[in-house]
Amino acid sequence: MDNNLFKNIEGKTGVNMKDVLELANSLQGANFKDESTVRSVIKRVSKIANKPVTKEMEDKIVHSIVAEGNKLDFGTISNMINKK
């Protein structure tokens, strides 16, 4: 990928692209029907984005993904976090 693109994204968001890519790679083949896996991903995304997630919000996200079958991606989690 283009290094300048990553630097621009990092500059605008403050998010380290290396962390994002490592997270994305770790998600391949992950079981998103497993509550502990989903909670772990939420915590990692929260840390990378420097956006704290309350226990209540974490529970809502987990329920949405595990029980309702919604997809797990940065957009889904970001939208839920930003709705608080």
Which SSEs are present, and which pair or pack?
Elements: H1 3-13, H2 17-27, H3 35-49, H4 55-67, H5 74-82
Helix pairs in contact: 2-3, 3-4
Features:
globular; Sporulation protein; 84 residues; SpoVIF; mainly alpha
Order of helices and strands: HHHHH
Task: Please provide the count of β strands.
Answer: 0
Secondary-structure class:
mainly alpha
Rg from C-alpha positions?
13 Å
Quaternary class: single chain
Beta-strand content estimate: under 5%
Low-confidence stretches: none
Global mean pLDDT: 80
Q: What proportion of the residues is helical, as a percent range? A: over 70%
Major beta sheet, specifics? none
Question: Can you tell me about this structure?
Answer:
By secondary structure, the protein is an all-alpha fold. Helices cover 70% and strands 0% of the residues. The protein contains five helices and no strands. The radius of gyration is 13 Å and the shape is globular.
Question: Outline of this structure?
Answer:
The protein is an all-alpha fold. The chain has helices at about 5-15, 15-25, 35-50, 55-65, 75-80.
